[in-house]
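User: Here's a chain of 280 residues. Predict its fold as tokens.
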Amino acid sequence: MSNIRIVTDSSADLPQPVADALDITVVPLYIHFGEDTYREGIDITHEEFYRRMEAEAPNLPKTSAPSPADFMKVYQEILDEGDDIISIHVSAAFSTTYNNARLAAQELAPDRITVIDSRNVSMCLGWVCIAAAEAAMRGDDRDEIVEIILDMLPRLRIPSFLETLEYVRYGGRIGSAEAFLGTVLDVKPILAIEDGKVVPLEKVRTRGRALERLAAMARELAPFEDIAVMHTHAPEMAEKLADMLADVHPRQNILIAQTGVAMGGHVGPGAVGICAVVAK
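Assistant: Prediction complete.
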């Protein structure tokens, strides 16, 4: 094992048992319902979050990044244990999380902390953290781990469909997709992340058609090193999509998980997506 520790943020959607097993430190984002503030994964569960979001609509929750002080506290504890840090975070186009982590690293120990913008989110970020942590446990040094990370980033794919445009428009994450999608209310937009930003792919009319298109996209991208089906309070659709992907990846190796509340607040309930690492 090397003396490198991996740090990420809660938008990576890492299952807690995985983070614990690989000694990955997860810094929580914040969720705000009016004047109430919660730390993702600590003060509020996914079920509580989605229940409250639906109950309080149209007043939607907001999210905010961990502060530089939050990162400094986490970093200092790890540095005091004698370990160096590789800190991997959600796309800087989506959040100030990466910039706040970078500020903290520069303040504390820039020679011992490497901060990387994954240019992605959810389990696409999560897969990178897992690979980096596994490399650290094998004894790889900092440069070797960074090389693994940089090799993975161009191979991440995250096609997803949303039940509604309401949440992503409110959160300001829709970018160039706004003009493409227009004001049609009954479409199921299929989006992706390219170069760290949300881009539109297609418009379909039904959930069934959206799942079919995601499965078709996966077949075009296959084979995969890793793949997850992520959802926002839509487990049945996620299971259905995973079944549809069994011809491109072993079904038992397809992770199904609920997207964390920080991301769920931006895309809203009913979204389903694929987070995959395309094989070399």
